[in-house]
Design goal:
The chain is mainly α. The protein has two domains: 70 residues, no CATH class; 65 residues. The protein contains five helices and no strands. The longest helix is centred in the middle third of the chain and has 31 residues. It is globular. The N terminus is likely disordered.
């Protein structure tokens, strides 16, 4: 169902565009099935969801850059991590309300569960591939 471990392993470190699109397409299908979106909901939802993902990815990218820049300063690294985590939480809260304008409460709940399940499945496949990889 999902792309292999190479795709997942690269996700945090500059995934090549083709693999990123493959994962994104699979994720879209996964979430669409889980939410059982009407055509009208789908059109509105994906525009908002894509912006949500862009906003989260921007903060996560900034957080990674900050961690690299502050690797030798543990106090600043921790403070910055907390600040970025607060920004992530704010984005999630803001978008929860935006999603609620499009989706039913049950669909909003299903969205967050679907995202978690999708991540869990990717991690599971990564672990399975790593365990089955021949040892040199």
């Amino acid at each position: 169902m999902l792309i292999g471990s190479n795709t997942f392993a690269q996700a945090g470190a500059g995934l090549n565009p083709k693999r990123a699109k493959q994962i994104e397409a699979i994720k879209i299908g996964f979430i669409t099935r889980r939410l059982d979106l009407s055509p009208e909901q789908s059109q509105k939802f994906w525009a908002v969801y894509n912006q949500y993902q862009n906003d989260l990815n921007d903060i996560l990218r900034q957080k990674r850059q900050s961690r690299i820049a502050n690797a030798d300063n543990p106090d600043k690294l921790i403070d910055d991590d907390f600040a970025y985590d607060s920004k992530i939480l704010k984005i999630k809260k803001d978008y929860r309300h935006k999603f609620s304008n499009i989706l039913t409460p049950e669909q909003v709940k299903s969205l967050y569960l679907a995202e978690k399940d999708f991540r869990d499945e990717l991690i599971k496949q990564l672990r399975n591939r790593a365990a089955n990889r021949p040892q040199n």
